[in-house]
Amino acid sequence: MRILAIDTALEACSVVLMDGDAVVAREHEAMTRGHAEALMPMIARLREAASLDFTTLDRIAVTVGPGSFTGLRVGIAAARGIAAAAAKPVVGITTLAAFAAPLIAADTSTPVVAAIDARHGHVYLQAFDGNGATRIKPLHISVADAARRTASYAPRLVGNAAQILSAAWPAGEAPPAGVEYQTAPAVDWVARLGMVADPASTPPKPFYLKPADAQPQASAHIPMQAAPT
User: Fold this and answer.
1) Given a cut of 90, is residue 131 above it in pLDDT?
2) What separation in angstroms does the CA of 60 have from each of 9, 127, 138, 218?
3) Taking the mean position of all CA atoms in its chain, how far away is CA 103?
4) DSSP secondary structure letter of residue 133
5) pLDDT by residue (tens digit) across 25-67?
6) Three-state SS for 23?
7) DSSP class per residue in 154-208
8) Phi-psi region of 167 (alpha: psi -120 to 50; beta: other; left: phi over 0)
9) Which one of 47, 55, 158, 189 has the fewest beta carbons within 10 angstroms of its own beta carbon?
């Protein structure tokens, strides 16, 4: 399968073109903001390097969150636009699954907990058995509760909140089997998960586990005034 994968969910802007297990071309840049300005030039360079015609793709994959509200929308909009122009299917891959996938592929004997910093003492979390089955569905949870709920698994921790979760580990429990801090998932694994995803059940739309932090301020509303007579 020939697939283009895009990740703008967290602290990176990444694209990759894969043909089966082979990486044809890849671009990656670490960043906390500026995804909107970086993504389309990055895709253009990848197209040129790989002589890519979008119509030769089998599908497009994109990370859908949890992650930055702005970053997610940038990647999803680009993926949808390319898919529409090339008349190809597009699938959404969660950042939690993308973080966990390479660890599960490397070792099926130990559970994996993927954790993303949600700020204010909370994380986005998903726990997987060693075989990849979900043990705890994705949720927004306090760091302390996340550590308590997962400590008995003695799991491998991965994600940009792996160290935060490890630091909150309950006393008396076996330590995590591993702690892998990553600021963003590997885009190659977004592509690999995209190859096996079902387009009918993995839509390219934002996967939110909590509302946006920014909320309109009622005090900032402009009062309505009667029209002059």
Assistant:
1) yes
2) 16, 26, 23, 40
3) 15
4) -
5) 999 999 999 999 999 999 999 999 999 999 999 999 999 999 9
6) strand
7) --EEEETTHHHHHHTPPTTSPPPSEEEE-SS--HHHHHHHHHH--TTTS-SS---
8) alpha
9) 55
Domains and CATH numbers, the chain: 2-94+185-196 (3.30.420.40), 96-181 (3.30.420.200)
Instruction: Kindly report, residue by residue over 144-187, the tens digit of the pLDDT.
Output: 999 999 999 999 999 999 999 999 999 999 999 999 999 999 99
CA–CA separation, 201 and 216 (whole Å): 33
> What pLDDT, on the 0 to 100 scale, is given for residue 11?
97
The single residue listed with the structure tokens 């044809």 is: 24
Looking up tokens 């995209």, which residue turns up? 194
- Expressed in angstroms, the distance from the first to the final Cα of the chain is 68
Side-chain half-sphere of 11: how many Cα atoms within 13 Å? Answer: 10
Question: Is 108's pLDDT higher than 60?
Answer: yes
Put simply, whether the predicted model's pTM sits higher than 0.85 gets the answer yes
- For residue 185, give both structure tokens: 């998932």
- In the block, residue with structure tokens 């592929």: 105
Tokens (6 digits) for 71: 């970053």
Q: Please name the amino acid found at residue 31.
A: M
Count the helix, strand and coil residues of the chain and give each as a percent rounded to the nearest 5: 35, 30, 35
Task: Record the tokens describing residue 90, joined without a space.
Answer: 């597009």
Residue type, 208: Y
